[in-house]
Amino acid sequence: MSSSDDLIKSIRNGELDKVRALLNAGVPVDIDGSHGQPGLPIAMACFLGHVAIVKALVQHGAKVNLADNSISTSPLSMALRGNKRDVVRLLIELGVKVPESMQGSLNAEELALLRQREKLTPNVETRGRSGSSAIEEIDMVGCYGTDTGTLEADVMRMAREMAAKKKLR
């Protein structure tokens, strides 16, 4: 049995420690499915509802966004098909792009989380030398698991300040 097969088997069985060990040993996180679509491990973990395994896969480079998240094998589609609401919420927190056509599949809590995330990440023009400060992008995958309370407070403060500036215009 290949190491990729071991990874798939461990995901299917919900064996987080084995998944981590295999990923740390260098097993690729992007294994193609039977139709040639990449991301079989994360799609399977999303469908089965293994939140901790999804987190581990993302930490090792698995992508939550595909070119088209509405296709049936995307992590979001798989979580919705499996009715794994905890995974859907996690994917939204991780920045999955929810196509308009799929927003009707989200429950009220998930839609609120999506709207909150959209409010906190507005389209900001960077003016550089004109005196306005640029907003630093934060790699949430890279800092996953850290205490982000202070960061969240800073983001909320910044969002309030930006809303106040918009009202003054």
UniProtKB/TrEMBL annotation:
Annotated Pfam families: Ank_2
Top-rank taxon: Bacteria
Record flagged with keyword Repeat: yes
InterPro entries, sorted: Ankyrin_rpt, Ankyrin_rpt-contain_sf
Tagged with keyword Repeat: yes
Alphabetically ordered keywords of this record: ANK repeat, Repeat
Gene3D superfamilies xref list: Ankyrin repeat-containing domain
Entry-linked SMART domains: ANK (SM00248)
ANK repeats by residue range: 37-69
PANTHER family in the record: ANKYRIN REPEAT CONTAINING, ANKYRIN REPEAT DOMAIN-CONTAINING PROTEIN 16
Name of this protein: Ankyrin repeat domain-containing protein
